[in-house]
Design brief:
Layout lengths: L1 H19 L9 H21 L7 E3 L2 E3 L6 H18 L23 E3 L6 E3 H5 L4 E6 L6 H12 L1 H6 L2 E7 L3 H10 L5 E4 L4 H5 L3 E4 L3 E4 L2 E5 L5 E5 L9 H13 L1
Parallel strand pairs: 5-6, 6-7
Antiparallel strand pairs: 1-2, 3-4, 5-10, 8-9, 10-11
Length: about 260
Amino acid sequence: QQASRLNSLSFTVRLHLIAILPYRKLNNNDTMRNIGILAIAMAASQLLHVNGFSCPLSMKAGSVENPPPSSSNLGRRAFVGGIAATTVSLATTTSNANASNLPSTGARAPDFQLPNSRGEGTTSLADLTKNGKWTVLYFYPGAFTTGCTLEAKAFQRDLDQYRSLNTQIVGVSVDSVEKNAQFCSEEKLDFFMLSDRGGLVSKLYGSALSIPGFGTFSNRQTYLIDPSGNLKWVFTDVESHVTRHSPEVLDKLKELQA
């Protein structure tokens, strides 16, 4: 019965994807197109939840694996992540933030105070700058999705290089504290995430995508903040080269610190 429901859901999602394929060429309306793509993925997620679907298969980047018997929730999460990865792959270009919504470089970065994934209460911009370090504040759409996992693991891989540049890594998404904590634990990340429920801080940083009926999500963008709390650089076109993003952040840090 579950296999039948899985096939039915997958077929429904594919039909929706086919329906929006003509809009892939509307390069002057990339943001709305990608919002539509994300909305389909979110609709699939909601449908799974409403129907109480518990997927026995783990789908990651198009592959199928057998998870441990006790991991039905992880199976559902991985299935939804697989759908999201598929929808994103249909886009030929990425939707960047409108430049007019971005905070100005050279000025004080927008203040914030958000719950952190370490269970230590909240973390503010002042907390991040009081130790005299640079901060890579990166916004990402959602934990456990393919792109966000690749991005986080690349930052982790290069963490010693960041530390040699007196720099700390901090992620921000609209995910819950619990989900961010689980993400950091499972991916063995030695840095923490901040939970921006409602997307208020994402909006302050010009990194918010608001989808009617689904809420606000963080676009994949990265901000470099100096030890004085000033915003020095913004990376907006990250989605198109996630795997190369960490090296380019390191290069920009070296340039800014020279």
